[in-house]
Amino acid sequence: MNLGKIATTLALAAAFSATSSFGQQFKALLFTKTDGWHHDSINAGVTAIQDLSKLHDFEVFWSEDAGRVMNDNWLKDYDVVIFLLTTGNILNDEQQAAFQRFINNGGGFVGIHSASDTEYDWDWYTKMVGHMFHIHPAVQTGVIKVEDPNFPGMDRFAPKFIFTEEWYEFDAPRTDDLNYLLSVDEKTYKPAANWGVKSGDGMGDFHPVSWYKEYEGGRAFYTALGHMPATYKDADFMHHVYGGIYWAATGNGFTAGE
């Protein structure tokens, strides 16, 4: 047995492990708990974000277990929490308090699609998200307009482009400091919806789709896109999602044309 060769091999393995662990940019907690509608696209979304983590060299941990991950001890190790297709009341009072402290301590939040259909009774959360979901019509193709190209992940979008989505109609803004990134032109699809218990006829001349804001020491990004499983195979959409994750985790910006 060549003890010198074994020692060298072990040392190289340890060095590779250390290099790998230090190489990742940031840590993201991917949270998909639902207490209501459960989107068929959750698994596709999880896989796509896991692929993003490999492409952009960040760590991601996926969980639906609020009891496990929504506490100070767990959250302290993460830079950003992603609410992917969450719905309903998913956190108890203690878990809400821990998540609020995470944001207050400089953490980032990313909400995707039905993150705006989550925790309606938690005022702090609704102000962070910015708008809450009201109703939607049938899935249709519409025209999206870029409102602001100066944000990470916006660089692949044309100034206007077609997109097929379940277009969320939102309530009034919960705060007055939202920075809008994308909007949809309601003249390019049929926005009317009637569910019996509630109805909607669109949002008028300005219908926001994505936005971001600084919030109580942290950062919050939201996109309403992402209803269908196939959307998570759209490279431009996933670049948009990564831009939000990157900004929420790091605070690093982007200026178009520079």
Q: What is this structure, in a nutshell?
A:
This protein has 258 residues and is of the alpha/beta class.
How would you describe this structure to a colleague?
With 258 residues, the protein is of the alpha/beta class. The protein has one domain: Rossmann fold. The chain is 31% helix and 25% strand. It has seven helices and 13 strands. Strands 2-1-3-4-13-12-9-6-7 form a nine-stranded mixed beta sheet. It has a two-stranded antiparallel sheet with strand order 5-8. The radius of gyration is 20 Å and the shape is globular. Mean pLDDT is 93; it is low at 3-21.
Features of this protein?
258 residues, alpha/beta, Rossmann fold, nine-stranded mixed beta sheet, two-stranded antiparallel ribbon, 7 helices, 13 strands, disordered N terminus
The residue fraction in helices comes out at 25-40%
Total E-strand runs: 13
Report on the biggest sheet.
Answer: 9 strands, mixed
- Return Rg in Å: 20 Å
Strand order of the largest sheet: 2-1-3-4-13-12-9-6-7
Summed up, the domain count is: 1
- N/C terminus separation: 59 Å
Q: Report the β-strand fraction as a percent range.
A: 25-35%
| Helix-strand category | alpha/beta
Q: How large is the count of helical segments?
A: 7
